[in-house]
Amino acid sequence: FYALLLAAGLPLYPMTAGRGMIATARLRLAQALVALLAAVASVWLALAGIAAMAALPLAALDGATVSAVLAATPLGAVLAIRLAALALMLLAIGLRLPTIWAALPATVALATAAWTGHAGATEAALGTMHRLADVIHLLAAATWLGALAMLLAGVIGLAGADDVERRLAGFATTGSIIVALLVLTGLANTLAIAGWPLPLASTWTLLLAIKLAMFAGMLGLAALNRWRLTPALAAGRPDAQRNLRLSLMAEAALGLGVVALVALLGV
């Protein structure tokens, strides 16, 4: 999940933040690495899933079993589309094409996650709505996590204070839209999975509550960055960059925790 989110988020962020359509060499390298990681992780996840279905150790899988399961379930189509999209992303990066040509296949690769798990299991018209909401939810989360990675890289020392301040200020409007999309689509996904009222005495609801608490923590840190730490950085206060670095690290850690909880919620 995290590799797919970053694979989409790293090219989406420069576009939404108005940073221009051509990525730097360092950013292209980061995009290529996460795309490769997403491909490897996706293949490993597919094989682990097939092993679980067949009640076999991963090392005991044979080609016939893998082929049969991939052909008989949506997993095969999902994996094929995802790997093809990631390959196109790598090609766009290698040819140094404008960022949109890396963002489009990366978006497709991430969107394939909506055809597995709870969203993939929901049927009929509700299933279509659930998958649409899930795709929007994933893209919003990817853009936020991509922005966090870029901002953290900048504040650690890969960009000057003026550039970091400009990035933070430029992401304010996009961040507000992302939060609104995450709340609305998250609510839709929750109702599609669990219905109403929520089953309060369940591990799933407990994990969801922890996820929402972490999300609230990310919101609080984002507000702190926007209204307190960014103005302090612009004013040239000596401790501003250190405080901003710590805040962004905490926000990124919470984001990683949210993704881990999503993985637990999925099973």
Oligomeric grouping of the chains:
single chain
What is the typical, i.e. mean, pLDDT?
A: 89
The percentage helix is: over 70%
Strand content: under 5%
User: What is the CA-CA span between the terminal residues?
Assistant: 14 Å
Classify the secondary structure makeup into a structural class: mainly alpha
Report the biggest beta sheet as strand number plus sense, adding barrel if it closes.
none
Order of helices and strands: HHHHHHHHHHH
Tell me the total number of β-strands. Answer: 0
Q: Spans of 5+ residues with little confidence (pLDDT < 50)?
A: none
Number of helices: 11
Question: Taking Cα atoms only, what radius of gyration do you get, to the nearest Å?
Answer: 20 Å
Shape estimate: globular
Quick structural summary:
With 267 residues, this protein is mainly α. It has helices at 2-16, 25-54, 63-72, 74-94, 100-111, 117-121, 124-158, 161-170, 172-194, 203-234, 240-266. Helices cover 82% and strands 0% of the residues.
Folded structure, characterized:
This protein has 267 residues and is mostly helical. It contains eleven helices and no strands. Helix 1 packs antiparallel against helix 2 and helix 1 packs across helix 7. The radius of gyration is 20 Å and the shape is globular. The mean pLDDT is 89.
